[in-house]
Amino acid sequence: MTTAQGTSERRPPVQGHCDPAFAAVRDVFERNFAEGREVGAAVAVYAGGRKVVDLWGGLADRRTGREWREDTPAFGFSCTKALTAAAALLLAERGAFEWDAPVTGWWPGFGVHGKEAATNEHLFTHQVGLPAFARPVTAEEAADAEARAAELAAQEPEWKSGTAHGYHALTYGWLAGHLVRHHAGMPAGEFVKKEFAPDLDLWIGAPDEVIERAARLTNVRGVRDEDGPRAVDDDARIDRLARSYLDAGSRMNRSVNNPSPGKGGFNNPVVLRAGWPSAGMLATARAFGAFYANLLAGRYVRPETLREGVRTRVRGEDLTLTVDSAFGLGFMRPSMTFFTPEAGRDSAFGHTGAGGALGLADLDADLAFAYLPNRMGDQLTGDLRAYRLAEAAYAAL
Questions:
Q1: What residues does the Beta-lactamase-related domain cover (predicted)?
Q2: pLDDT in tens, 182-234
Q3: Domains present along the chain, CATH in parentheses
């Protein structure tokens, strides 16, 4: 086919397994490729603990023509936050800490500039008031998790902890991730691998051989995304969101762009090796979906622990994103920033990732869903590629 840049690309057909009952998921996935909305991608669905969809296709690297294979891992951006949250749920279940206890109980240096009353819950619900670093941070500096945590601990918050919430797009990793590191005695990514993914193609902080075969993120200009439902129907809000995203001084811009991933963006091996606990996951969709399926099945934490963990703690206008968001303990709940098909708007949880990635689970439907593309979508309030796939999965139940 011909791209907007005028070069010919051969996109292999969709491969993998799809239960006939979920054929609509495959139809949507194939249509996304046929209509030019994908370069490469993978999607997996588990229903009742059974893998019913495991599909992949396209190009892992459009520069070289390398095909997306069964074991091609892809970058999940902020989908990573759910893994870090699950790690904390497990540690709390084991008695390592209490959610309503002060952060200073285990991190004395955090209690400066009015942050003395901040609780562990505030770290995971984006309420602690540290949505961005106060200075530019490089990818190399960001790899030193202990130093970056100490830097944030010394900062003055942008609002008093517990009085409001605002998305901590990247700093979440050095706050929530530091709690996991402290109580687990190892980096969050290492703990996640040990406890959740010893046999899964899923990493937060990947070895070089995994990075070498990972899908390469790409921007394809001139692609017209599908028209359809929008998470935000108010055009004035969308304009405000767009202006905030482009304003270098806005809280949103400062939150999502600092630390800088450096040369190559989030393809930079320095970032992928470091495994930021906010945005550092490399995984196959099959493995990422299995994580959510195992979480639903009680293989990681007790069902009551999970239900308490995904219970909505904050909802309403997000001081960083400028639109409504909702969070449990690190997990997104359905809102303008976690755009969920109607069937899941009471019981779904998970996390989105920049560029269109989505991990979702549904407690009532016993559904786990994972979608990882390498073509960066540009919709500010929800990617319809993921939405249509999840919608088809729900409809097949």
A1: 29-393
A2: 999 999 999 999 999 999 999 999 999 999 999 999 988 656 666 666 555 55
A3: 15-395 (3.40.710.10)
DSSP 153-164: HHSPPSS-TTS-
In whole angstroms, what is the distance from residue 83 CA to residue 353 CA?
13
C-alpha to C-alpha distances, 306 to 86, 90, 312, 333, 363, nearest whole angstrom: 8, 9, 12, 13, 9
Distance CA 296, CA 290 (A): 10
Spatial CA neighbour of 371 closest among 36, 47, 56: 56
Q: Which residues of 81-91 are buried (b: 16+ CB within 10 A; e: fewer)?
A: bbbbbbbbbbb
Q: What CA dihedral angle connects 53, 59, 60 and 62, to 10 degrees? A: -160
Instruction: Report the DSSP beta bridge partners of residue 70.
Output: none
In Å, how far from its chain's centre is CA 369? 13
Q: Who contacts 220 (Cβ-Cβ below 8 Å, separation ≥6)?
A: 3, 4, 5, 39, 62, 375
The predicted pLDDT at position 196 comes to 98
| Phi, psi at 105, each rounded to 5° | -65, -30
CB atoms within 10 A of CB 182: 15
Q: What is the largest CA-CA distance in the chain?
A: 59
pTM for this structure?
Answer: 0.93
Q: Which two tokens stand for residue 55?
A: 């599909």
CA 47 to chain centre: 21
Under-70 pLDDT residues of the chain: 1-11, 221-242, 245, 378-382
**Non-local CB neighbours of 274 within 8 Å, separated by 6+ positions:** 139, 142, 143, 145, 205, 280
Residue 358's DSSP bridge partners are 352, 371
Question: What's residue 237's pLDDT?
Answer: 62
